[in-house]
Structures are given as structure tokens and as C-alpha cells.
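User: I'm putting together a small comparison set for a docking exercise, and I want a reference complex before I start. The sequence is below, and the ligand is uridine-5'-diphosphate. Could you produce the 3D structure with the ligand included, as C-alpha cells?
Assistant: Of course. I'll restate your input first, then give the C-alpha cells for the complex.
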Amino acid sequence: MTRALVTGGAGFIGSHLVEALLRQGDRVTVLDNLSTGSESNLRAVRAHPALSLHVGSILDEALVDRLTREADMVYHLAAAVGVQWVLQHPLESLRTNVRGTEVVLASAARWRARVLLASTSEVYGKNDAGALDEDADRVLGSTRLSRWNYAAAKGLDESLALAYWAEQRLPVVIVRFFNTIGPRQSGRYGMVVPRFVEQALRNEPLTVYGDGQQTRCFTYVADAVEAVRRLAQCQAAVGEVFNIGQAREITIEALARRVIELTGSRSEIVFVPYEQAYPAGFEDMRRRVPDCTRLRRMIDFAPSTGLDEALAAIIHERRALLGTPH
Ligand code: UDP
């Protein structure tokens, strides 16, 4: 039986991963400080005999070391997440994402646990040249803009992990999640899909930032977790970086219209200038499309859940939470 440690296991992607690991028979320990995650995300598995939850920080070296010592595999998902959250908490974001990851990697190296490191498509910065493969250039703006510091910190996490692999033979696999969506994702930290769904269910205006012609590619969380689960078992993936996503693009305006249709909402769309939506100097990327060739070659898997199906699952969940009629 594999003993897994999932940092950030009470978060959005983390909690779905925990469920999948329990289903495959792993013993799972979760370390989460419940800052953006919550215990309710683990409601469905809270009583599972193979799950234990520790509320604490990845900056607590003694705690991380104790939990890592008992693990064969560490899924490191704990991080500051969400553009809005990162902009509001720049210092905490940097400390968590830089020092926290170093603490986790050092313990894993000490106890010879394998590591899967969760990174993000944000590391590509404003490179919007089309389908981005894992070796594409990273284009970051000024250090005065927190978004790029977040991208730099996550990039440094990757560099650290690769250095531990190169110098200490710590087996690491790095994944870059592109825009991942699904039940339990909160709109509080800026993410567009849960925000639009809640706005639509409340019949409030959907807030499309800028001209709405920027595009994103959305991946359903169950697909992203399946890719992670398979990569973690794949020896050949060690020391590599993988995009996790799919390449179907949609403009944010079209996304808003689709959410209104699928919810049957009376909401309208309002266009909010970036200057009103974000702090001064904010920069957005016009496109962000993954090239997932490497993922497909490695594990013979590609995310396949369509956007409508993903939105339907999210709408279903939010309706139940908000108590709005079906
Ligand atoms: N966005 C929007 N309205 C919102 C929240 C976000 O139009 O209420 C836009 C945002 O400016 C960006 C896109 O939706 O262009 C995706 O934003 P999100 O924060 O979900 O992800 P990321 O920017 O990291 O891709």
C-alpha cells in the first residue's frame, strides 16, 4: 500500500486528488493550513479509515519532516493560489511558494520519498504565442507587479525540484496545471468559472473583464487528477515537466454567454475595464493554450471532458450550495 502525503489536500484540486488516491487504495495524509482550502472539501471522505488530516503549514519544518518520514509519495499542492489572492497577499504568497516548497523538497530528499510538484501555466507569463510546450520561453513583466512575482516563485519551485533531482536523485515529477475547473473551486480568489456560475444563478450581471476577447482553455478537475495519478506511477516521468490541460479555446465573453444559457439565467453581461477589476498596472494574457503532446506520449491520456459537461457539474453543485431551484 502506498503511503501518500498530500500538501494542500483540502484545496480544490487537492481534495479531488485525495479522493482518487483513496479509491486506488492508498493511505493518505493531508497537510493543509485551511487558508484557501477547507475541511468541507473533504466531506465525502472525512470518515475514511485510510485518511488523516493535519491542519498546519508547510513552513513548519518539524511537522513537514514528521509527515514526510511516513510517506512514500508526496503530492505537493499547497500553494498560494488565484490571481486575486496573490495580488492581495504578495508576501505570504512568496513565502509559501518559495520557502514552503524548499521545506517539502528537503524533507522528501531526507526520507527518500518521491515527489509530484504542482506548478502552473502562470510560469509562461505573457507568452501568448499559441500552443505552449513545456520548453516554451517564459515571458515575465516587472517585479513591481505581483502576478509576475507569483510566476517567478512557481518557476523557482520547478528549478529547485529539478536541482534536487539532478544533484540528489530525488525522484520528482512536475505538472503545470492550466485553467482547471470543477466542483469545490471557489470564486473568492478570482477564478472566472465559479464567479460566472454564481453570478448567473443569482441573476446578477456577469463581470467580463476587458473586452472579453481574451481566451482560456478549461480542463475538468477529474481529468487533471487522472493525469496526476498516472504520472505519479510512471517511472519514465521522473525529472520531467508536463502541461496538464486541453487545447480547446474559448473567449471569456463566449464563456459568459454559455454559462447564462446553461443556467437559464436572466443575467446580463457587463464589461468591466481591467483598471477597475485589478490593482493598477495589472497585465492579463490574451491567450493561454497548452501543448499536451508530452503528457499524451508519456501516459497515453488526454483530458476529454467537454466544457458543457464540466459546467453542468459545477452548476449542479452550486445550485445545491446556494439553494436555488433546479
Ligand atoms: N475574468 C473575468 N471576470 C471575472 C474573473 C476573471 O472576465 O469575474 C477573466 C480574467 O481577467 C482572465 C480570465 O477571466 O482573463 C481567466 O481568469 P482566471 O483568474 O480564472 O484565470 P487566469 O487569469 O489565471 O487564467
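The first strand starts at residue 3 and ends at 7. The domain at 3-179+220-244 is CATH 3.40.50.720 (Rossmann fold).
User: Thanks, that's exactly what I needed.
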